[in-house]
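User: Last request for today: this protein with iron/sulfur cluster, please.
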Amino acid sequence: GGHLLDVRDLHVEFRTGEGVARVINGVSYHLDPGETLAVLGESGSGKSVTAQAIMGILDTPPAVIRSGEILYQGRDLLKLPEEQRRQVRGKEIAMIFQDALSALNPVFGVGWQIGETLRQREGMSKADARARVVELMDLVRIPGAASRLGDYPHQFSGGMRQRVMIAMALAMNPKVLIADEPTTALDVTVQAQIMDLLADLRRGLDMAMILITHDLGVVADVADRIAVMYAGRIVEHADVRSLYRAPAHPYTKGLLESIPRMDVRGQELSTIRGLPPNLMRIPSGCPFHPRCPYVQQVCVDVVPHDLVLGDGRTSACHFAQEVRDDSAR
Ligand code: SF4
Ligand code: MG
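Assistant: Here's the final one, the structure of the complex with iron/sulfur cluster:
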């Protein structure tokens, strides 16, 4: 069946002075209307780059899309002329970033910035745009919206600035919102508030969401499915409950074991040994093998392909079933 968004076998590389970094190596994921997919991984795993490819903000060298398709409502975005691509960006698929301060213009009032696309792209009058901006600021729960239209970004707290950016992203009623580490720069209490807001907005607006994060702790309550990325690949893909109950990839298992649990006192948290690979020299076979507690010779020699597990999940591990059974114990 047709998905709302369908990324198929995407390959992206960065061509640098020192060589070619293979940052995305065959990523496939999909999104259906109204659902939330969390894309999880360490920095450098390729989760943001995939999102930038979807948004069409990657096209300039040294980033090169080698192959793949990004189907939105059945049309391949990678084949659309730039003019039509622009129509999709913001209007169909919008994105918010970690750093609201650098995404906003310091010399314009926030109301003006939120209303910019409405005036320029929708051709709204100033008065109509203003009314809609107040509506949007109320929607993202900025207190006293009507009186804060003229305030500059620096007059808002970090959390409130993130709400301003969310309001901007929602201005054109996108069907997909991509949130790239939307709470990473914020303190824990504010993080939870922003995640709650995003979850409510997604439900209320019937919008699909891709939530990119390195923090497995923030996605459990929000996401329907999780795709775990490592070295530019999706190593595990599952619905949230199955993945938490019994991860089927050693990397996911390691991530879960490094989250503090409220119900276990005096626990010793484990961490995954070693570092993510240099993408110019990705290890042979399974790219996770230098760090994997389950490693065997076959892992060094043979690239593991997605193993489809009974309940519709996949894991790119030669020993996926064993790892899952081991996790479930
Ligand atoms: Fe570990 Fe081998 Fe599975 Fe890779 S394929 S995750 S090295 S057990
Ligand atoms: Mg990133």
